Structure formats: C-alpha cells, structure tokens
Amino acid sequence: MALSKSEGQVTASPTKLLIAPMISVILCVGSAARAQAQDAQPKSVDESWTATTQTHVDNTNPLRTTESHSKSGNRSVDKQRVEVLGPDGRYQPGSDTETETTQVNATTTRTVVRAYGWDANGQRYLMKVTEEEARGSASGDVHVVRTTSSSDANGNLRVALREVADTTKTSPDAQETRTMVYLADGNGGFTPSVQTRELQKRKAGDEVEVKTTTLYPGANGNWQLGEAVEKTIKDDGKNRTVEDRVSRPDSEGEVSQFSHTVSKETETAPGEISNTVETYSTVVPGVAQDGSLHLKQRVTTVRNKSSDRTTEQVEQPNPGNPTDGLQVRAKTKYTVQYAASGARQTKTIQVRDTNGTFNLVSDETQKTQAVPPTQAPVAPSDTPK
Q1: 326 neighbors 298 (Cβ within 8 angstroms)
Q2: What is the largest CA-CA distance in the chain?
Q3: pLDDT at 260 over 90
Q4: On the chain, which terminus has fewer CB atoms closer than 10 Å, C or N?
Q5: What does residue 121 show for φ and ψ, rounded to 5 degrees?
Q6: For the whole model, what pTM was predicted?
Q7: How far is 265 from 244, CA to CA, in rounded Å?
C-alpha cells in the first residue's frame, strides 16, 4: 500500500510539563514503535507516500513535521520538513532535510543528505551536505567514505570532516571495522581526530560479542583511550538479551566501568513482545558517587502485534528520596489502526507530578490516507536558494 496524503490533529492538556528529560525518553521509544508499525505495512518496489504529524507538548511550541518518501528504480528520495507555530498562528518552516540514495550497482551505494535552514527573510539556504559512498566486495569486505561539508557566511560549502571506515572479514565468524575521522585544518588538509576499532565475533550457540574502543589524540602525540564498550548479544529466535558495558578512564588514566545496560526481549504471550531495558551507572542524581554501579532507570515496553498497540513505562528514582528505589515516573501508549483507506496512529504520554498523580502532557493523533500506487513520485531535491 502506497501512502501519500495525511492530516494530523493534536489536543493538549493544560497540565504543566514536569519532567522534560523523561518526555524525551518516552518520545524516542514511541518513535521507535511508530517506525515498527510503519514497517509492517506492505511496500511496493516503486512507491510514494507523504505523512504529516502535528505535535504539541505543554510549555513547548507546537511542531508540524511533514515526511515524504519516493522510490523509482535504483533511486529513492526521503524528505522531512519541521515547522514551528509562529506568533501569527501560522506554521513557519524551521528546517528541511533531504536524503537521496542511489544503488549504483550490486556492490556500491551512494547517499547524499542535504540539510537546509531558513533565514529571517523566509529564504531557504543550504547548511550542510553529507556524501557517503559504500563499496562492498564478494569477500564481504566494505569500504565507506563519508564527507561532510558546511556552508560558510557567504553560502559556500567547505569540507568540514571526512570519515573513512573499512570492514574486513577476518574469519567466517568474525569481522573487524576500523574507522578514522579527520577534521579539515583550514589549509586544504585534514587532521586525524577520532579513531575507533570494532571487533565482532559470533561465538558458540546464539551469542555475538562486539568490542569497540574509541581513541583520541593525546598531548604527547599518542592515541589515548576515550571509551571502551563491550556488547554481548544472545538471540535464540524467541528471547533476546543485549548487555552493554562501558568503561572510561578517570583523570589519572585509570580505566573503570562507567555504566552497564541490560536489555531483555521475550515473547510473553502469543503475538506479545515485552522488552525491559535497565541502565546502571556510577552517576545517579541524589545518590553518593562511590564508584559503584546503581540502577538509574528501567524502561519497560510491551508490544501487541495483533492489536498494533505498544505501551511503555519509565521508572526512575524518586527525586526527593532517590534511595527509596525506582518508581514509575512516566507512561506512554501508542496504537496503530489500519483500514483500507489508510492508517490512524495515536500516542498519549502521562507524567507523574510531585503529588504522585499521573497527568496527561501529550495527546497526539496522526491520520494517513492511502492512495493508488500509480501516483507520481515526489520530485527530486530542489535547487538550494
């Protein structure tokens, strides 16, 4: 089913926003759930759709986001425009992003991302361009070059950084990716800025181990460790567990564990998937920093495939008494309803106030109308003004 026109409606409660960071977490989780629901819809080889969502959260300026996608042959174009409500009650453009992806051949993909802004005169201008080319090989090796250019005061694009990544199959069950980020030095050259090394290995059974180290240039010219991440993934098809352990050096150069995240996903009932993410950290607001890991947050997500309904809740320490353990601080519910004429998506967010009462802070509805798959694709990227 190809999608095109949509119109969104949003109602907001008068309740004041109390916990902004928590809303950010909930919005991110809800966005992921929305993406899963959209991916579940059937797609054709050549397709075109447009969807518009209006979002209003208390104490923030209402936003309207319009997204479109078109694909024809080996080329696809994705556009996103974010508009804010102006003082005259009309929506004004805030930013545009256009992503053009071309499958050059069986082993090469080229992607160009253009980011636009709007000046005080209402004119759109090109802010940044990111160009990426990924080349694969029959052996499974991949070479990626990504270049980002920014616009200067005169509107001229200048290369700001370049990233080169090489993935090599070291064995049938292992691969290594080395990435180097270079910053432009202003004289036409580049200076190494960050390098990462990722080792991925499939172990016995259903376990995958990923080790990533990030290095930065030191004062003496040597590369120094900035962060090390050890990830373990276990997936037997029904249950999936992901553990992340992050270690960082202190001011004396001693490396110790900084955080530990455990994500467990399981099928709790036919067609129902539950995912729990617990984050432990040495830095928890209100808790003494003794170098030990403390439970900082738990996010529980339950998705029912048959009803296309997803619910999430965020548990965090009580700001007034953090040592009392976690309590539910926010809830969100996301639902998708499909019909022959299109889809209807709703999302509500509730946040706990200081009295322990859950108040509605966001209520969003998005309606998407289906159109015949023969609709002409969205036009290519506009020429920047």
Answers
A1: yes
A2: 65
A3: yes
A4: C
A5: -90, 5
A6: 0.71
A7: 15
